[in-house]
Design a protein that fits this description.
The chain contains eleven helices and twelve strands. It is an alpha/beta fold. Strand 10 and strand 11 form a beta hairpin. The longest helix has 25 residues. It is globular. It binds zinc ion (ZN). The site of zinc ion (ZN) has 6 residues, from loops.
Length: 307
């Protein structure tokens, strides 16, 4: 295995620098920013991961969020001129988010809406795992397991391994009314996905993997207590170390689409912080400043390594 990229959705630079978990602290690391448009706004995971994996601005790939596409560009551009006037949090109500959902969130984006190749489509023997806005999976020379949003279950290419995979890992949890149960189950599902990824690695011959763990984002949206958040980071760091141990990649990149900051709004206790995303790597040459730069950097590195 040559390169393993693991996304820690929502992992926050200042949290990680405070905790310095075991695997993370050994890497070269820096802040990872979204494209300029989102640096002053709350970037959504759908828009961010699509830019990271295609190298294209969201004005090109048109994925606005995991709930909506950029369908009415004229209206969106007008909205973007005025959006700084709309409070994102008015007495704990998500005003801006609500307005955006009314105006723009009509159809959740699918993989086919993105008209550019994803990085794993250009590297043979790849694994794509759980990356937001990659459903349904497309045929590739490798394995593609789709991420949110999907109807009731994720998709798998090649189809013949779907049944086996779903016996190990059943997919992302829905937030129910029992918050305590939801938080507990999130970790159980995380351990199952790690197990499923190991099973895939044992049965295929991957050269490259792009994996996203959504646990940090999901957990921090609903958890306030710092000790528990610290523990969550340690768990994600440990799973990452385990996968590295198992897959023996030559290089590793860990990255997040945005950080999180404490703020009570609607049903959340932390919200996205566009300026606190992270990128960390065994190889300082793979560190880039913004979401727009990762795709080319990785492909160029790949070409120079394999030519
Ligand atoms: Zn995210």
């Amino acid at each position: 295995m040559k390169l393993l990229i693991i996304g820690w959705d929502g992992a926050t630079y200042n949290h990680l620098e405070k905790i310095k978990p075991k695997f993370y602290r050994k890497l070269h690391r820096q802040i990872f920013l979204p494209e300029p448009f989102w640096q002053k706004r709350e970037v959504d995971s759908g828009a961010a991961w699509t830019t990271i994996t295609t190298g294209k601005s969201f004005f090109e790939h048109k994925v606005l969020s995991i709930s909506g596409k950029l369908e009415n560009e004229t209206l969106f551009k007008l909205f973007s001129k005025l959006d700084f006037l709309i409070p994102s949090n008015l007495f704990g109500k998500a005003v801006k988010f609500w307005l955006m959902s009314k105006l723009f969130y009509k159809h959740p984006p699918l993989s086919n809406d993105v008209k550019f190749p994803r990085i794993w489509e250009l590297i043979p023997n790849s694994l794509a795992w759980g990356v937001p806005v990659t459903h349904p999976p497309k045929p590739i020379y490798g394995v593609w397991v789709s991420g949110m949003p999907y109807p009731d279950s994720y998709g798998v290419y090649p189809k013949r391994i779907e049944g086996k995979l779903k016996k190990i890992y059943s997919g992302e949890l829905k937030r129910g009314s029992d918050l305590k149960e939801y938080k507990k189950k999130m970790f159980e599902e995380h351990f199952k996905e790690v197990k499923a990824i190991k099973w895939l690695y044992d049965n295929f011959d991957f050269n490259f993997a792009f994996i996203v763990f959504t646990l940090p984002d999901r957990f921090m949206h609903v958890e306030e207590e710092w000790e528990k958040i610290e523990k969550m980071y340690e768990i994600v760091d440990e799973s990452t170390g385990e996968l590295v141990e198992h897959m023996q990649p030559e290089e590793v990149v860990i990255l997040s689409d945005h950080g999180m900051k404490k703020e009570k709004r609607a049903k959340w206790v932390h919200i996205h912080d566009s300026k606190q995303g992270i990128i960390a790597s065994t190889n300082p040459k793979l560190l880039v400043d913004t979401h727009l730069d990762l795709f080319d950097r990785v492909l160029n590195w790949w070409k120079s390594e394999t030519s």
